[in-house]
Amino acid sequence: MSDVLATIIIPNYNGARFLSPLLQSLRAQTDRRFDVLVVDDGSSDKGVEIVRTDFPEVTLHINERNLGFAGTCNVGIRQSARPFVALLNNDTTVAPDWFAHGMAAFDHTQVGSVASLVLLAEPPHVIDSAGDVYSVVGGALKRGHGKPREFAAQLPNTCLSACGASAFYRRATLDEVGLLDEAFTSYYEDVDLGFRLAWAGYTCRFAPQSVCYHHLSASYSPRGWNYHFNSARNAEIVWQANMPLESRRRHAQARRAFLTLQGMNKMRQGVWRAYAAGRKAGKAATAHIEEKRTHIERIARVSDDEIESRLIKDWFALHVRKAPSALDPRGPAA
Which residues does 16 contact at the CB level (< 8 Å), separation at least 6? Predict the structure, then answer.
């Protein structure tokens, strides 16, 4: 199709039980100006066979080795030559006008990404994410998580970043700022990309009518060592690499308080060792952090004050009073 606008990229790892409903929901889209690419990350179930047999219109790529979520998404992005790409978790389905509303939100050239309204798949379909927000102390949160879906109507139409479960990107902006950080493997990679897009002057638009249903933590989100280690490590790298230096200095005392509360929460959960190891690994990633900061200096088109204006200042209300689960580095797992 000459009028194809986007490639929908589905990173898949042992998601056979979800693939058919997801791909059927894409077949049912009111706007079909897209192609679909499933990137399989070394699955051991029958997902590849399902795609080949039941969905011949879908392009299938099989990684030679397991790359993790970020690397698998990047394989798909690099293979696409369309003006836009959309990332969809394999444990999702989408409403019939998900694509149409997601694309309609690119109403200005400065819109670099679009966040869908991601609802939990099981009724009553409460909000999983209405885009990602980030506080001045370095905590990311899935906006609106656990709220009724009607809550989305009162939210601002921009956010820091799109939740990776359902995210649209303008392809040219990714060429400019870079793809997902493959060193992260999984967790916080979408927030990190959102920061780079913000530094380059782009906006993330929230499209509440672009509805995605998410089974949550069914494929790439184990609640074990990797989740707590990667989340803590990547959260530290995001803070060190993306936050303006003066902002980090200004909010250093508040960040220490936040991390103390977060650490106490990890002790209560019995996962302190993984969390502490992740924090230590993030602090030790000095070369990677410096590389990322140098890259930001090259692409930055906005001021430090503009970046801080996109962050949530009342961190205590965000992370403690309103959403104690956000004392996890990312809140509920993506």
Answer: 43, 45, 46, 47, 50
What tokens were used for 43? Answer: 């699955």
Q: What is the pLDDT of residue 315?
A: 94
Q: What are phi and psi of 39, to 5 degrees?
A: -110, 110
pLDDT score for 219: 53
Architecture of domain 6-214: Alpha-Beta Complex (3.90)
DSSP 260-303: HHHHHHHHHHT-HHHHHHHHHHHHH-HHHHHHHHHHHHHH--S-
Question: Which contiguous run of DSSP H or E holds residue 235?
Answer: helix 225-242
The SS3 assignment for 41 reads coil
DSSP code of residue 128 = E
Helix or strand or coil: residue 174? helix
pLDDT tens column, 115-140: 999 999 999 999 999 999 999 999 99
- Which residues in the chain belong to E strands, given as ranges? 6-12, 34-40, 59-62, 84-88, 92-94, 111-120, 127-129, 132-134, 140-142, 158-159, 166-170, 203-214
Beta bridge partners of 86: 8, 168
The reported pTM is 0.94
pLDDT at 17: 96
